[in-house]
Each structure stands twice: as structure tokens, then as C-alpha cells.
Design brief:
The protein is mainly alpha-helical. The chain is 67% helix and 0% strand. The protein has helices at residues 4-35, 52-60. The N and C termini lie far apart (90 Å). Residues 50-61 have a biased composition (Basic and acidic residues).
Length: 61
């Protein structure tokens, strides 16, 4: 027969798993709500010239 501490331990494990799942779901929805869509880690986007070989030729003239 199981004692009260066994039941408390099982209930604690179930509660910890439920909280972990809730936190993961909440984090995902908060991220998508803030950015519009989930894109992973934010990256620094720099404008690139469309044809760098033309820009190099133009600069040498």
C-alpha cells in the first residue's frame, strides 16, 4: 500500500510536468504574438548590394 508521501510525490511530479508544458506553450504564443510569426532567433539583417561585381567595377573607374 502507498503512503501519503508517495501520493504527494506523484502529485508533485504531475504538477511539475503540467507547469512545464504550460510555460512552453505560453512562451511560444507570446513570441508569435509579439513578432507576428515565429522566426526563431532574431538576426541582424544588413542591406546587400544586388550585384557586388558591378559595384566593384564601378568604383575602380
Amino acid at each position: 500500500m502507498m503512503s501519503m508521501t508517495d501520493y504527494a510525490g506523484i502529485a508533485g511530479l504531475i504538477a511539475a510536468a503540467a507547469v512545464a508544458i504550460w510555460m512552453l506553450r505560453n512562451h511560444r504564443t507570446a513570441t508569435t504574438a509579439r513578432t507576428g510569426k515565429h522566426r526563431g532567433s532574431p538576426t541582424l539583417r544588413l542591406p546587400r548590394p544586388a550585384h557586388p561585381e558591378r559595384a566593384a567595377a564601378r568604383g575602380s573607374r
